[in-house]
Specification:
heterodimer; A: mainly beta; Folate-binding fold; four-stranded antiparallel sheet; two-stranded antiparallel sheet; 1 helix; 9% helix; B: alpha/beta; D-Amino Acid Oxidase, Chain A, domain 2; eight-stranded mixed sheet; 10 helices; 29% helix
């Protein structure tokens, strides 16, 4: 059981949250202008980091806030970094 | 290859079983191969076997960083079935069942295929609807999947005794008679022995650390035993697909997630069929040959490479199991593990060429064990001929750019 640090509610059980995937995913600024390959890469492909990675979490059964944390996908260590978005 | 037979058993008994030949060689890697397979699990070894058997390619090596079948081939729940939703999935999984049924004889190695059937309980109109849709699709492809009433459920599962106050009462079930359990280690070992006998080199304890390219094309792989030249590399790693694909400079539409399973202490035979409870996330249980009750559920809801699972899944699955089988409340758990899924975005396998010429990927998704022979069969075809096998033609990476996804609701790990 992970304790996810919600910036509003504090650390809560993981089953109050939904993981929203990698936080370094950048939507192309003009989707109409990019080719299919770039758009497919944005929509479906992931880096799927092994190790420390930034990701979105949604406190769906709590305050409803979206925020980012840094989590190690091997050890499950979690840290909040100064660059995190809330 | 020395064949296993009753006479071989008798002959070796006379010499105290000291003279059995090794099942496969442990050769020094050559400097050059026609094709290299990364990953010595069921998929990789099966691919090497079919490359040699169906396509006459025996100058092939399989590189495995650990030991054969020590990855997710040994971390699943041994269930094979073909009750799927999509017209791309059903014939592919049927092919797997067909191959599994003939493999023990073909490989001269007992895979202990136990065709015991799978019963999925219906507890909501949504599950009823999807089961009917699956049954219709499967019927088109000649696969038996039928609705059964509670009478037949009671006859097949004498211990069926759901709690009277269960939240979603069971109104019926859907039954696939051909679903089976298969001894998973034997799949890896049988394919390894068959491939080795046809000249394939199986290199264990040898990790591929890099993939070398020249002007885009594959020229070979770096390993911890030196550089091996090859024009074709087939990736058959489960749980590390993104890591290996990154060596070739590509990104895949997958997320790595653990799929947990756990077993009870052994008890006397009590449950013949494989049972699926779809009230929550698809809890499944069956009794192994050793008598253990094997329990599993959907995959963990976030990416992880940790090879262990999270507790809410165990809690959910236990709740679902005890609602239907209250007598299992006194079972004690013996072992718990997690296999790693490289879960494609749409839940279906990927057997595909890539943007790097000569680099092919086999990503199993959630059904890695059940698809082993079909994936190996079609992946070998793809590597040998550089064109997809008709059964896997719709399972390529191009489905993500064309938008023709194979969204599969029949996978256990789908949440």
């Amino acid at each position: 059981m992970l304790l996810i640090p919600c910036p509003w509610c504090g650390a809560c059980n993981e089953n109050e949250f939904i993981c929203g995937g990698e936080s370094d995913r950048k939507r192309p600024t003009d989707p109409a202008a990019v080719d299919d390959k770039t758009w497919t890469d944005y929509l479906y492909n992931s880096t799927n980091h092994k190790g420390m990675t930034g990701e979105w979490w949604w406190h769906v059964h709590g305050c409803g806030k979206w925020f980012t944390i840094r989590r190690d996908t091997v050890t499950h260590c979690i840290e909040s970094a100064p660059g995190d978005q809330t | 290859m020395k064949r296993f037979s009753f006479f071989a058993l008798a002959r070796n008994a006379l010499t105290g079983h000291r003279n059995w030949a090794q099942m496969w060689r442990s050769p020094e890697p050559r400097r050059e191969y026609d094709a290299v397979i990364i990953g010595g699990g069921g998929h990789g070894l099966g691919t090497a076997y079919y490359l040699a058997r169906n396509h006459g390619m025996s100058n092939v090596a399989v590189f495995e960083k650990g030991w054969l079948g020590g990855g997710n081939t040994g971390r699943n729940t041994m269930t094979v079935r073909s009750n799927f939703l999509r017209e791309e999935s059903v014939p592919f999984h049927e092919k797997s069942l067909d191959l599994y049924q003939g493999l023990s004889r073909e490989l001269n190695f007992n895979l202990m295929v136990s065709e015991r059937g799978m019963i999925t309980f219906i507890q909501s109109s949504a599950v009823n609807r999807i089961a009917l849709q699956m049954a219709n699709t499967m019927h088109i492809y000649g696969a038996e999947y039928r609705m059964i009433g509670l009478d037949e459920v009671r006859r097949r599962i004498p211990i069926f005794d759901p709690s009277p106050d269960m939240r979603l009462p069971i109104t019926g079930a859907v039954y696939q008679p051909r679903a089976s359990m298969v001894r998973h280690d034997a799949v890896a070992w049988g394919f390894a022995r068959g491939a080795d006998a046809r000249g394939v080199d199986i290199i264990q304890n040898c990790e591929v650390t890099g993939i070398r390219r020249d002007g885009g094309r594959i020229t070979g792989v770096e390993t911890n035993r030196g550089f091996i030249a090859t024009p074709r590399v087939g990736m058959a790693v489960a749980g590390h697909g993104s890591v290996v694909a990154a060596m070739a400079g590509i990104r895949l539409p997958i997320v790595t997630q653990p799929l947990q399973a756990w077993v009870s202490e052994p008890i006397k035979p009590i449950l013949d069929e494989i049972v699926v409870i779809r009230s929550y996330y698809g809890t499944y249980l069956m009794q192994s040959d050793k008598g253990e009750i094997v329990i599993g559920q959907g995959c963990d809801p976030y990416p992880s490479y940790a090879q262990r699972g999270t507790f809410p899944i165990i809690e959910d699955a236990t709740t679902a199991m005890l609602e239907v089988f209250p007598r299992f409340r006194r079972l004690r758990l013996l072992r718990h593990w997690a296999g790693m899924l490289d879960m494609p975005y749409d839940g279906s396998p990927i057997i595909s060429r890539t943007d790097v010429p000569g680099f092919y990927v086999d990503v199993a998704g959630s059904g890695g064990f059940k698809t082993t022979p079909a994936a190996a069969y079609t992946f070998a075809h793809l590597i040998a001929r550089d064109e997809p096998h008709p059964l896997a033609a719709r399972l390529g990476l191009d489905r993500f750019s064309s938008g023709r996804l194979v969204q599969e609701g029949g996978v256990s790990a789908n949440r």
